[in-house]
Amino acid sequence: MEWTGARYADKPTLEVRTWIDAPPERVWSLVSDIELMPDMSEELQSVEWLDGAAGPAVGARFVGRSRHDALGEWQTTSHVIECEPGRSLAWAVQEPDRPSAVWRFRLRAEDGGTELSEWMQLGPGRSGLSLAIDRMPEKEQKIVFVRLREFERNITATLGAIKQRAEH
């Protein structure tokens, strides 16, 4: 059977959602504090704002340092491309016009609490995943699939940690 998954150039996406028994303002205070994120992630090791920024605003930049058993250690600079307090926060990784990934949190008041989603898109810019694909182009679709499943597990864990903190 032939593998028929997405290719990197397809800019594959995924989204995970959860409902949190807390108002959007409380959830936003956690989502928008990016320096908390390493505590909620196996891969992300540290985050710090650049250029004197103290919080999210369109155009603000931050550096993130990550580690993965198969990919090693790396750092990226991200650019906030969307910031609507209490509603959404998005950033482009590396080049804003051709990011290696785009990440977005969305919050929506629902049933007395908050529906929180985390969405991400791979590519179109090059990333560490591109290097793995360069080495094994015949396995590109499997590489993309496996990485998306890793992101899905990590996002699910992050949303669970945000839910735990917001509700307690």
Can you characterise this structure?
This is SRPBCC family protein. Pfam families: Polyketide_cyc2. This protein is an alpha+beta fold and 168 residues long. 26% of the residues lie in helices and 36% in strands. It is built from 3 helices and 7 strands. It has helices at residues 24-31, 128-135, 140-167, and strands at residues 13-20, 44-49, 61-68, 72-84, 88-93, 101-110, 113-122. The protein has a 7-stranded antiparallel beta sheet, covered by helices on one side. Strand 5 (88-93) and strand 6 form a beta hairpin. The N and C termini lie far apart (48 Å). The mean pLDDT is 93.
**Cα-atom Rg, whole angstroms?**
16 Å
Query: How many β-strands, per DSSP?
Result: 7
| Number of DSSP helical runs | 3
Any idea what the CATH architecture is?
A: 2-Layer Sandwich
Helix proportion of residues, in percent? Answer: 25-40%
Fourth-tier CATH superfamily name: START domain
For the biggest β-sheet, the strand order reads 1-7-6-5-4-3-2
CATH topological fold name: Alpha-D-Glucose-1,6-Bisphosphate, Chain A, domain 4
**Termini separation:** 48 Å
The backbone outline, from C-alpha atoms, is globular
pLDDT averaged over residues: 93
Largest sheet: 7 strands, antiparallel
The helix/strand series, from N terminus to C terminus, equals: EHEEEEEEHH
Count of folded domains = 1
CATH class: Alpha Beta
List segments where confidence is low: pLDDT < 50 over at least 5 consecutive residues: none
Q: Structural class, please?
A: alpha+beta
- Strand percentage, roughly? 35-45%
